[in-house]
Every structure is written in C-alpha cells, then in structure tokens.
Amino acid sequence: MIKVSVTKIRNTPVGKLAAVGDELKVSMTGPLFIDPQPMLPAALQTLITNFTSTKATFKSGGDLAKPPYTAATKALIDGLVLYAPYVSKIANGDVTILALTPLPTTEKPNYSALILGGAVATGMYAKKGMSGQFIVDCKSFGPKVGYFAVICEGGAMPAGVTLDRKGKLKIPAGCLMNIFTSSTTSKKKTFSDLTPGVTYYVYYVLTYGADTVGFFGVPLQVICSN
C-alpha cells in the first residue's frame, strides 16, 4: 500500500524544507485532516521559523552558528516525520488524498510516462576540456533513465531537424550545419575534435528503456575550449 515515505522526508534537500513545512501547514487546514493532528499549526510554524532564522545566521555567521542551525534542521525534519503515519492512516493508500500534502510517498514514479509527457533534462552545465573539447552533464532525472545528446555547431538547431519517439534523428536535405550526437546513456558526455572557440548548442533528450524517447529541451550554449 502506498503511504508517506519517512525515508524521503529525511532526505528532503535543506533548500526545500521550509517550503515543505509551509505547504504542509496549509494542507492541514483541509477538511480531511481533522484533529488531533501531530502538532498545532503554531508549533509547526515555530519549527519552520527557527530553521529559517538559524539557517540565515549560519550563512552569515560561519561555523560558530552551525550547531543551532543543525539542531533546528533536525527538529523540523523530525516534526515533518510526525505527519507521516497521520497522513498515511487517513489516506489508507488513496493517492489522491496523499497528493493533498507535499509529503513524499512510497509510490514509484512512472519515468516513461513522465518523459513522454514532456519532461526534459534540467541542471545542464559544461566544463572545459582540452583544445577542441568540452564536457557536459545534467541533473539526474531518475534511476535507469538514459540521456541522448545532440550538439549543433555555431547556432541553434535548424528548422526541420526532428527526433521521433523511436530515437531516429532526421536532418533535412540542405542543412549545412555540423550536428553531432552522443547516444551513450550516461549523463556525463565528452565531445572532442570540435572547433576551438566556436559556440555549440547542446540539447539533452531523456530516454527510458528501448521504447521511450523524450523531447529536446532548452539548449545549453557552450564555447569550445581553445
């Protein structure tokens, strides 16, 4: 049965903790979440406020301000965890009820459906390599997801270049731009033997298994190493 995941709550990035707490506080005002809740809204707000204030102090105050921030982070996470059995009991496996709160669940994402629905690679960045080379990478989308890349030399992808859902790249007749691909499934890709100093437009495409090929995202512009 699908329920709120305590493990995923504890693995929430610190940059998202306050937002999760704020959203949870709002969702707990819904008619399904009747008293007694794990804590009063004011108590949850105190945990959020302590976390955000100590985080700001730690950011500007250095290591001496770290212990209060660490304690406030743990307190907020522990507070969020208290809601896991509460929400799971009310939902009783109903994903529509679970979705009423920002708490993560044990449901496994359908990566194929997400990719075919338009999900694209994010967090793309580049590093310089040797002359005529650069290295690109992106944020992980999920386990067993593959990453197909297309780079265009000197400009954005020309009109008429298409990629079908079987992974076939079609370049129209008369296209004079140099276009290169990397079909390895790895996120991190090294492109070599390119023209130093030229700007390349890098497009990532998410894939999943043999039958799921996604769409071109917004390109990353990379100047090739001299």
Plain-language structure description:
With 226 residues, the chain is α+β, with helices and mostly antiparallel strands. It has helices spanning 6-10, 14-27, 41-61, 66-91, 95-98, 111-116, and strands at 125-128, 134-137, 145-153, 162-163, 169-170, 179-182, 189-191, 199-208, 212-213, 220-223. Strands 3, 6, 8, 9 and 10 form a five-stranded antiparallel beta sheet that branches. A three-stranded antiparallel beta sheet has the order 1-2-7, with no helix packed on it. Helix 2 (14-27) runs antiparallel to helix 3 (41-61) and helix 3 packs antiparallel against helix 4. The longest helix has 26 residues, at 66-91.
Strand content: 15-25%
Number of helices: 6
Cα gyration radius (Å): 23 Å
Straight-line N-to-C gap: 56 Å
Short description:
The chain has 6 helices and 10 strands; from the N terminus they run ααααααββββββββββ. It has 226 residues and is of the alpha+beta class. The mean pLDDT is 93.
Index terms:
3-stranded antiparallel beta sheet, 19% strand, 5-stranded antiparallel beta sheet, 226 residues, alpha+beta
Layout of secondary structure:
Elements: H1 6-10, H2 14-27, H3 41-61, H4 66-91, H5 95-98, H6 111-116, E1 125-128, E2 134-137, E3 145-153, E4 162-163, E5 169-170, E6 179-182, E7 189-191, E8 199-208, E9 212-213, E10 220-223
Antiparallel strand pairs: 1-2, 2-7, 3-6, 3-8, 4-5, 8-9, 8-10
Helix pairs in contact: 2-3, 2-4, 3-4
